[in-house]
Amino acid sequence: MKLEKIIKNACEESISESRTGDTEDEIKFIQNYLKSARKIIVPSKNAVKLNIINRVLKEFGLQKAEQLHINTNAADLNRLPALSKAIMALDQCECDLIISRGRLGVPGSGSMLVMIDKKGRILTAATSPSHVVHKKEVKDAVSGEIVHALERIGLKRIK
Amino acid sequence: MKLEKIIKNACEESISESRTGDTEDEIKFIQNYLKSARKIIVPSKNAVKLNIINRVLKEFGLQKAEQLHINTNAADLNRLPALSKAIMALDQCECDLIISRGRLGVPGSGSMLVMIDKKGRILTAATSPSHVVHKKEVKDAVSGEIVHALERIGLKRIK
Question: Would residue B134 count as lying in a domain?
Fold first, then answer.
C-alpha cells in the first residue's frame, strides 16, 4: 500500500471517529520507506554532523546520506526551524529522504532532528536539549537524536 | 526581556550569521514562562492523560492544567497533528500555555507532546514511539513525554 492510501484511510478513520492509533502496517511502511531510500540528503554545512548521521545510518543498515550545501539560516526565522530547514532542502534537490537538524521552536527551545519523505511528510523525529542544558558535544547530541528517531519507529541496529 | 525581543534578537543573529545556538537567557525565559503560567490547557477528552500530566506538572512545581473538551479529530487530517491540536485549542480558549499530545506526522509516525505559549509559539516538545512499538500503557508513555519535554529545557522535579 502506498503512503497516499495509508493517509487516506487514516483520515477517513479520524473523520468517522473510528481511529485507534498507529497500526503495524503503517509503521512497517515507514520502516520500509527508510530502508529503501536511495538518495538521503542532510542539509548542513557541518561535516561532523554528516559523519555522525552516516555512522548511525550504517549501523541501522540504511543508505549513506549526502550533504546538501545550502544556506539554511533563513529557517531560523520561522516558527518551526528544523522542519523549515528540511523543507528548504526538499525544494532545492531531488531525493527520497531528508534528515534535518535544527531548532525545535522559539530561541531556547533546543533541537529537533526530523526526517521527511520526498513530498515533505514527517516520518519520524526526535528532540534533544540545548547545548546549554545537556553540555554534550554536538556529535553525541546528534547521535542520540538520530538513534531515537530510528528506534521509535521500530528500526534496530543490525551491526 | 520579552519573548518578542528574544525572537527579534535571534532573527537578527541568524540573518547576520552570528548565531551560535540557544543562550542561557533564552532557556531561562522558557523556564520562567512555564513556572509563571497560570492557566494551562490540555485539549483532550481523556481524563487518564490529564491526570498523568497534572501529576508530572505538580512534581515540577508547575500549575495544574485544565481539560479543554473540544473535538480535535480534525487535527489528524493535517501534516502536523499534535501541533495542529494545540493550535485548535489556542484558537478556542484564553490561556497561558497549551500542552497537547497527538500524532507527530504521517500515520505510523508515533506521538509528540508539544507545549505552546499564548501566541502558539513552540516552547518545548518530546516524541515517543507508537504503542505498537513501545507496548507501554498510555499513562507511562505520556508521563515519559512530559518529563522529557520539561527536562530538556532544564526544569527539574522539586518533589
Answer: yes
Tell me how many domains chain A contains.
1
Look-up: residue for cell 531528508? A98
CATH number of residue A57's parent domain: 3.40.50.10150
Global ipTM: 0.95
List strands edge to edge, sheet with B40-43.
B65-68, B40-43, B97-103, B111-117, B122-128
- A46 and B CB contact within 8 Å: no
pTM: 0.96
A29 is a domain residue: no
What range defines the domain where residue B113 resides? 37-151
Looking at chain B from residue 89 to 108, which residues have their Cβ under 8 Å from any Cβ of chain A? Answer: 103-108
CB contact under 8 A, B112 and A104: no
pLDDT tens digits, residue range B43-85? 998 899 999 999 999 999 999 999 999 999 999 999 999 999 9
Contact B80 A24 (CB under 8 A): no
